[in-house]
Amino acid sequence: MPASAIAPATTAPSPFARISTDGVKVSERREIWRIGTASVCGPHEIEFLGDRPFSADFEHADVSNLVFSRLICRTPHRAIRTAHLARHDDRHLVKAVLVTRGGCTVEQYGRAIYLRSGEWSIYDTTQPYRMTVPGRAEMFLLLIPRDRFVTRNFDLRHLVARRMSGCSGLGKLIWNLISNTFDQIPDIADRSSHEVADIVVQMMRLALLDLAGDRAPGDSKAALRDRIKLYIASHLADPELSLTKLAAATGCTKRYLHMAFHGEGDSISDFILKQRLERCRIDLLDPACARRSITDIAYSWGFNSSNHFSRCFKQFFGASPRHLRAGIAPLTVLDAGSRKLAQR
Q1: pTM as predicted
Q2: Separation between Cα atoms, residue 74 and residue 137, nearest integer Å
């Protein structure tokens, strides 16, 4: 092997996994592509369109429990999610597609839209869909766990297969956020991935609620809840984060903020506390933070009393921060606490 083909020993491994038809026999490409992409996106049928041998590349990486991916197609094809496949797949996802070159058609719930470069849309993998790429095209795909994305008063049926512009307003913010996050994935530290994912999900929901244009009654409060969560996710490290600051940032009274957040099952103050506790738990388990003191970690996420932090942490997770870091915490209790937090 020539020396130039050997990567330097200091080169960090890429966070991206890649599926490609390069070097694959033409007769084997359908199965290789179907199996490879199904492991990320869920099972679907593949139809090759035209006479040219199918050629495509797909690279993907995780940011928390979101999957950021880029698809490059050099020949036409169609991906079909049948009702049978949707029923028998336990990976319930919302998928966003952002076209950067060429175009594609997305069909779901009886609607069909053609997306051109600079446009984006979403679809729901729990229901049948078809995506057709008629020629050479490039696009970003974002996969979001459905239960993280869909909450009460959020009617996904009326939001899928709608054309969104990536050139102005919130649509442009989403476009830039997803594409820039994809480019920066190699430099996003594990300890930051959860905050990045939170911001992406909340911004996506805000953009859809704002751009859909035909909100059902109650959606205005759902949009406000998303604005509240987005602000909290972006300011958790601020020890002065409070209902007063949220009211000033959103232009709402404290009373109205309480009313809008009522459906979450937690008060806003409790929500802030639990988000901070989870961020501290993540850092306490992160080997990269092993040299940081427990107090330093707590203060970095907005706590201003180590005693208050320890007391709240043990109450919520069933173990002290010190026992968690020492590896002697009751993990079953911790897992239950994490699941409870994830449902918020």
Answers
A1: 0.67
A2: 7
